[in-house]
Structures are given as C-alpha cells and as structure tokens.
Amino acid sequence: MTYRVTDPVARSVEHEIHGFRVDPPCAAASVVLLQHGLSYSAEAWDFLPEHGYSYARTLAEAGYAVVAIDRLGYGASTLDNGYAATVAAHADIAHQIVQELRGEFEHVAIGGHSAGAEISELEAGLFDDVDAVIAMGYHQFPSTQFFADFITGDIPRALHSDYEYFLGTPSRRAAMFYTTAAEPWIVAADTAAALPTPSGEILTITLQPSRVLAPFVRVPVFLQLADGDRLFPSAYAALAAKSFVRSPSVTLDVVPQAGHTYMLHRSGPAAGERIADWLRSRPETPSCEPASS
After folding, report:
1. pLDDT beyond 90 at 255
2. DSSP letter for each residue of 73-120
3. Model-level pTM?
4. Cα–Cα distance between 217 and 230 in angstroms, integer?
5. Phi, psi at residue 180, to the nearest 5°?
C-alpha cells in the first residue's frame, strides 16, 4: 500500500510512503500505525511470520487493522537526500497518515520501536490526534555505552554522508541489538536485512525531542522495554514513565531474556501478545470480534 504525503518543509513536494496492511477477520474500528527503528523497514513487524515473529499478525488476530510503513528514506519509501529525513519530518508524515486513517477508522493507535517510538511520541505530543501510544525499546535515558557509540561513530559518519550504517558494522549492530538468548540464525537474517539510515534522522534525534514533547501526550501509553537492552536499559523504566505527566495511564512492561530488538528474541512473540492484550483492555482502542459462523 502507498500513502502520498506532503514534504513537511517544501510543501509543493510530495513523497510516497510505502508499507503493508493486515486486516483482522472482522470489521475493525481501530487501527494501529507501526513505525520501525533505525536500520529497519516495515518488514520488522512481519519478519518471520512462519516462525511466529510477526507483531502485525498478532495485533490483527486480536481484532485490529495494522498499517506498517517504510519510513521516509527506508526501503521502498526512497529519498535522494538522506539529510531531509529529520525526526520532525517523520513526525509530520506520521501525522498525515494518521489523518488519512482517521477517515476510515474511529480509533487510531500509534506505536514504534526505538527511533520509531521517538517519532510516535513526537506525533502524539505535537498533534494530539491519536488514541493510544505504544513505545517499544525506547526512552530518554540511553546507556553510556550506546551514547558513546552514537557520538563518536554515528554522528561523524552522518556528517560525512547522507546515509550511514547504524552502529558502524554488522557485528557491532548484532552485539548491541541481541543477547545470547536470541537464535543465531535469526540474528544472521536480521543482520542481512539491515538498511542504511538517513543521516538527517541521526543528526536530529541526538537531542531526543520527545524529552520536551512527552509531557504533552494526553493518551494512554504502553511502555515496553527489554531486560537486556544495551541501548535503552530497562532500569530506567519507572523514570521514563514519569515523562508522560499528562497521560491518564502509563503501563510498563519488561520483556525477559531479550535485547534491544526483542521482537526477534524467543520471548518476543509473548511480548507482542501483551501489547494486544493492553490495547483490548483500553476503551480508547476497542477491538472487533470475528462474526460467529
């Protein structure tokens, strides 16, 4: 599927945002817009469905329509100048897609992993047009190790070229994203699928604008972190939850025996089920029920 969006800066310019949609076996009243993190694409949400690694299908089976996009500059959503893909641009584009989804669905939830969570929080804080936020593998307190890698590696590479390889090398990326609890063949498949990251996003996410915008999120938030995350440690979960001072409800969930890309760890599928259960528990995001045969 394709969304045509207006460039947030050059309003006369349009971009095509590509992705996929999964519908439940019933007439959905709610839709979940999913946004991937750095070096990923929409495929992250339906990576190995035959082995149970598909948050998109888990949510659809729970009664939600799911839209997963290649954010601008990733995958099929091509962009010639990677410096133009800033976090502000991503949030504006997400807002445009949310508005289009509002024309079809009564309820819209927005969620993302890592940088996708940053974008989701920005969208919700800036535009106040979603019913729930799902922030996965992300908060405003990065580890010292990751911060050092980012400052000394990713930023210099981003200044040198408009696209860069997040975390520098495939082996470093795998070490930071996974724990020994992950199956090696899955780590290898994910590493092989890694994409270049737009440098505009690298340079503008450094200050984490969600630090300022999180207090303006006025809807329920589900904050899910992994206990072995080397980028955004779960030790700061309670502190991160306090960022959403105006949210009526902040639910914390810690994924056991998993690293940053916890969706592809053995405990990942169960974590996806907990997201679905949370959505179903919220009156703001009702699920549909399959028609009786």
Report:
1. yes
2. TSTTS--S-GGG--HHHHHHHHHHHHHHHHTT-SEEEEEEETHHHHHH
3. 0.96
4. 26
5. -70, -10
